[in-house]
Amino acid sequence: MKTGSKIALGALVLAIGCTVLWFSQARAVDLPVNRTLFVATWVTAALLGVFSFFRGVNWYGGVAALGAIVIGGFLPFTVAISAQQVASDSIQVGDTMPHFTGPDDRGEIFDSADLRGHPVLIKFFRAHW
After folding, report:
1. What is the pLDDT of residues 72-108, one digit of tens each?
2. Which residue range is the domain that position 14 belongs to?
């Protein structure tokens, strides 16, 4: 196995591992405020993918290198363009829910007043992109 192929496979494992951790934390709504470590890891994987071509790769090393470059380039880009900020007037736990209406999953109009007097948990979640 060529040295570049080994580097490429390591870069792909690094990129995939970082991505799996990112999405598992996103699913748990536990993404860190400072995402520098994730971005640095993805960029490192992409750079290792590029470097592996200079060291020489087999066909599977080339595929792994391209995978690491794509993952390591795309995900930091999505993080960079989608900064999320919490508004200063956001609703906090225990606050009274403001009145709103909107379509439900069947297309019928939902009115938040129908929930008055009942404890309610409403979770709005948007991933990093």
Report:
1. 999 888 877 776 666 777 777 778 778 888 888 888 8
2. 3-80
